[in-house]
Amino acid sequence: MAHASAYGSRGGSLLLLPAIGYLCLFFFLPIAFLLLQSALVPQNYLRIFREDVYLDVMYRTAKMSLAVTGVCLVLGYPFAYFMLTAPQRVINVVVGVVTLPFWTSILVRSYAWLVLLQREGVVNRALLSLGIIHHPLKLVYNIVGVICGISYIMLPYMILVLYASMRNIDFQLIVVARSLGATRLRAFYKIFVPLTAAGVMGACSLVFILSFGYFITPALLGGREQTTFSMLIDIQMNQLLDWKFGATLSVVLLLVIVFLVLVVRRIVRVERSVQWIQ
Amino acid sequence: MNCKFNPQLAIARFLFTALLACTAACNHPQNQNVGARELTVCSYGGSFQEAQRKAFYEPFEKETRIKVHEAQWSGEYAKLRAMVEAGSPAWDLVNGAESSTIIRGAREGILAPIDYRGIDRTKFYRGALTDYSVAFDFYSTVLAYSTRTYPAGKAHPMTWADFWNTKRFPGGRSLRKDPRTTLEFALLADGVPIDKLYPLDVDRAFRSLDKIAPSVTVWWSSGHQPAQLLADKEVAFASAFNGRIWTAATQDKMPLEVEWNQGALDTDSWVIPKGARHYNEAMEFVRYTCRPDVQLRLTKYINYGPTMPEAYASLEAATRAILPTSPENRPKQFVFDAQWWADNEAVVVERWNKWLVER
User: Fold this and answer.
1) Does A37 touch chain B (CB under 8 A)?
2) Is residue B293 within 8 angstroms of chain A, CB to CB?
3) Same structural domain for residues A62 and A163?
4) Complex ipTM
5) What pLDDT does B357 receive?
6) Out of B15, B232, B357, whose CB is closest to A118?
7) A–B interface: beta-carbon pairs under 8 A
8) Can you give the pLDDT at residue A37?
9) What's residue A273's pLDDT?
10) How many structural domains does chain A have?
C-alpha cells in the first residue's frame, strides 16, 4: 500500500507531465495569446453588440445546435437503451458500428451526405421512383442538410455517454418497482428515465457544445443562412486578416460555452441532490 | 541506494533528452535537405492543377531533377499575407489567379521581385509581366450551363441579365463566394454597359445581388464546384472558370457548355512569396514556363490561352478557337480591372462577407 501511494502520488503525477506540457504549449498558451490579442482592442467587444450580424449568427448557431442535440437525443436514447439490454456479443458489434464513423475523415463524411441528399441524390431518386414525391426535395444547402450532417457526427458521443451513464443504474430498482406492481412502461419512465437525467444532461451539453463550435459541415452542407459563429471567426482570420477582432470573437464564443457548461453543471448537481432527497 | 530505480529521475532524464532532440531537429531543418533540390508550388487544385502537373511539373522534374511539391488554395489573399508575415512561407511559388492579388501583394511588400535574367520580356503580351509576377495563361470567368437542359438550338442565357432573369430561365443558380467578378456580373445584369463597368458602382452591384440572392442555391468557393453542381442538376446555371467546364465536358464527358459573352478575362500568374526558402528553384521553374514550347503545352490539358504571342501562333486553329483569347471569343468579354480591385478589395470583401451573412 505504501508502495502504491509513493508511486501514485509522485511518480504517477510525473507521468502527467508530457500531457500537461503539451496542453500548456498548444492549448493554454494559444488561449492566453488569444485573450491578449483581443484585449489589445477592447472596443472590438462593443463592435459585437453594435452590429447585428454577430449576435444574430450566435443566435442562429445556438438554434442549430439545439436542433442537432434534440435529433441526437431522440435517436440516441433508444439506441443506448438497446445496448444496455443486449447480450455482450451484440454490444461489441454495435459499439463497433457506432464508432465506425470516427475512422473516416470528417470531410469525406460530409461529402458523402452531399451525394445522398442532393437534388439528384440517392434519397431524392428513391423517393421519386417510389412515387412518394413528384419533385425533388431540397435536402441540402439548407438547415436539413446541416442537421443531418452534424447529428450523424455527434450521435456516437450522445450514445456512448448515455450508455455509460445507463450502465451505472441499479437494475434492482426496476425489478423492485415491477414486483410492487408497476407496469413495464411505468417502471421505465418512473424509475429508469429519471435516473438517467444526469447522463442525458451531460450527453446533451457535450453534443450542444461541440455543435456550437462547428465549422466544416455547415460550410459544406449549409446555405447562406447556416453561417455559424466559427465561420465568422474564419472570415476575420483568413479573409480580412483582422486577427484581433477574430480573437475577440473567439473569446466571446469561448465565454458563452464556458457559461453554458457552468449552467449545465449546476442543473445536474441540483438534479442529483433532488434525487438523493427523494 | 544508488542502483535503485528512481522513476522520477528516469522520467526527468527522458524528458530532457526528448527536449534536446526536439530543439536540435527544429533548429536545423535545412540540414535534412542537403543535396535534394525541391520547391512547393501552390495552385487552385482540381483539373486545373492536374493540367499544370502534366504540362509543367512533371516535365520540369524530369528535365531539372528538382522535385515539385504541390499545395492548394482558393486565392485567399490574407492567407498568403499571414504566411509571409509569420516569416516562413510554406509555398515557394504561388499561382495568383486574381491579378489584383499581385498588385496588392507587391504594394504591401509580401512578394519577392522576379529575377528577369534569362527571360525575354519582349516576347510577352503587354501587361503580362510586372516586377513581381509573370502571367502564364489567360482564363475567363463565364456563364456555364448544362446542354442537357439547353441543347444547341434551344435559347440559353446569353447575358448576366438572362442569368438574373429567373422567370424566363427557371432553376437554381450558383455564383462564386467572392466579390471579384461577381460584382461585375451583378452590374452587367443591372444594365451597366460592358465598357463602362469600372470604376464599379458597389452600391448598385449589391442592390442587384439582392435580387438574385434568393435564387442562388450554392455560393461556390472552389473552382471544381460549378461543373459538379451543373452536372448533378443541383443548379441550372453557374459562373465558372472556363477551363473547369471544358475539362469536365471533354475529359469527364459531362454535358456542359459555356457562354463567352460578358465573361471576365484575367491572367494566371506566378508570384514568389517574400522569404520563400527555394527562391532559386522557383525562378528556375518560372523561366521554364516562359519557354513558348512549354507554355503552349498547357492548352493540351485545359483551354487557357498562352501569354506569349509565339506560343499562341504555333497552336493549331482548332485549339485556338476554344481559348478565351481567340479572335471570336476575346471581343465578347471584358478585362478584369486588377487595379480597381487592388485599390478597393479590402473594403469590398468586408462588405461582401457581411452581406452574405445578413441578407
Assistant:
1) no
2) no
3) yes
4) 0.74
5) 85
6) B232
7) 64
8) 87
9) 62
10) 2
User: What's the rounded Cα separation, in Å, for the pair B272 and A21?
Assistant: 37
How many domains, in total, are found in chain B?
2
Mean of pLDDT values over A239-244: 82
- What is the mean predicted confidence (pLDDT) over A96-122? 87
A247 and A184 housed in the same domain: yes
Q: Are B341 and B202 in a shared domain?
A: yes
One domain, residues B345 and B244:
yes
Q: Which domain holds residue A18?
A: 1-39
3-class secondary structure for chain A? CHHHHHHHHHHHHHCCHHHHHHHHHHHHHHHHHHHHHHHHCCHHHHHHHHCHHHHHHHHHHHHHHHHHHHHHHHHHHHHHHHHHHCCHHHHHHHHHHHHHHHHCCHHHHHHHHHHHHCCCCHHHHHHHHCCCCCCCCCCCCCHHHHHHHHHHHHHHHHHHHHHHHHHCCCCHHHHHHHHCCCCHHHHHHHHHHHHCHHHHHHHHHHHHHHHHCCCHHHHHHCCHHHCCHHHHHHHHHHHCCCHHHHHHHHHHHHHHHHHHHHHHHHHHHHHHHHHHHC
Same domain for B112 and B123, yes or no, is yes
B316 to chain A, closest Cα gap in Å: 39
